[in-house]
Amino acid sequence: MTTIIDGKQLAKDLNAQTKDRVASLAQRGIVPGLAVIIVGDDPASAIYVRNKHKKAGQLGINSVVRQLPATISQADLLQVVTEYNQDPAIHGILVQSPLPAGLDEQAVVAHIDPAKDVDGFHPLNVGRLFANLPGHHPVSCTPRGIMTMLDSLHTHLRGKHAVVVGRSMIVGRPMASMLLNADMTVSVAHVYTKDLSALTQQADVLVVATGVTHLIKETDVKPGAIVIDVGMDRDENGKLTGDVDFDGVVKRAGAITPVPGGVGPMTIATLMQQTVDLCEWSEERGTN
Ligand SMILES: Nc1nc(=O)c2c([nH]1)NC[C@@H]1CN(c3ccc(C(=O)N[C@@H](CCC(=O)O)C(=O)O)cc3)C=[N+]21
User: Same domain for 145 and 260?
Assistant: First the structure.
């Protein structure tokens, strides 16, 4: 029988743990603070930000949403980041992606205090993950959430073959690093990969993050494989669907994530978890 990995339930479990940690911090008079910076009026971004704000509130995290006009200058945007960098009540800073044209997203991310980089996108934190350096550091939330999902299956990853399809800064690259750090043999495929199917059929763990609707079909998957679908695509009827043809692949996979209700909810739960991580690490350093 194929395990359907229930991202909603796992997110609920993780959020319950996060809520407990927030309660312990409250007993010491500490409230984790999350600043979400949103620039312009992209409707999809507005929905994501509202969801994050709502979830933070439910868990007792103090979330501050800063809505800025699309016309803001790069210098003024950096100044807002500086303000939160210097605010001791804020432990995590997130700049909602994408930024409007004309703003330099990489420069903005690099301006965030690495100790408050709740998305794990700052080059220092990217480097720490890539090098598998010891010590606390934030990492990209979607792949971290996927590692939590893999943990929930209690399968041995060491020495097994992981294939990551996609090489983005946000998912593919950090995902490959985390799986490598978990002692897996990792292949990274992308748009130029030749005979993708021959590679994906070798995967014990297959993570797909391409934005190509139903790229992966039943015959592309090894029997019993764990298949993680990071896709957030719209089908011909405008319905949310993934990069994996779920109805076909579910027949062959050992475990599979649905879309929606898979990786998405875990991303938000992991963001909340990491906000509390940053708050606790700040307390350890004596900066709360
Ligand atoms: N700085 C930054 N950090 C981000 O983490 C970030 C970002 N920018 N920009 C946009 C993407 C996208 N993202 C999602 C999170 C949760 C769901 C999610 O919960 N999805 C639900 C369904 C939602 C629906 O029905 O539309 C699910 O898959 O079940 C989706 C997408 C975070 N992002």
Answer: yes
Q: Whose CA is nearest to atom 20 of ligand 1?
A: 264
CATH number at residue 94: 3.40.50.10860
Is 160 annotated as catalytic?
no
Q: In terms of DSSP bridges, do strands 240-241 and 255-256 run parallel, antiparallel, or are they unpaired? A: unpaired
Residue 229 belongs to domain with CATH number: 3.40.50.720
- The answer to the question of residue 150 being in a domain is yes
- Could you tell me if 41 and 101 lie in one domain? yes
Cut 0.95: pTM above it: yes
SS (H, E, C) 28-61: CCCCCEEEEEEECCCHHHHHHHHHHHHHHHHHCC
* CB-ligand 1 contact for 94 (6 Å cutoff): yes
Give the residue numbers spanning the domain of 215: 141-264
User: Could you read off the pLDDT of 160-209 as tens digits, one per residue?
Assistant: 999 999 999 999 999 999 999 999 999 999 999 999 999 999 999 999 99
Q: Is 63 annotated as a binding residue?
A: no
96 as an active site residue: the answer is yes
Catalytic residue from among 119, 204, 243, 277: 119
Give CA–CA dist 146/70, Å, rounded: 32
What digits encode the pLDDT tens for the residues 141-150?
999 999 999 9
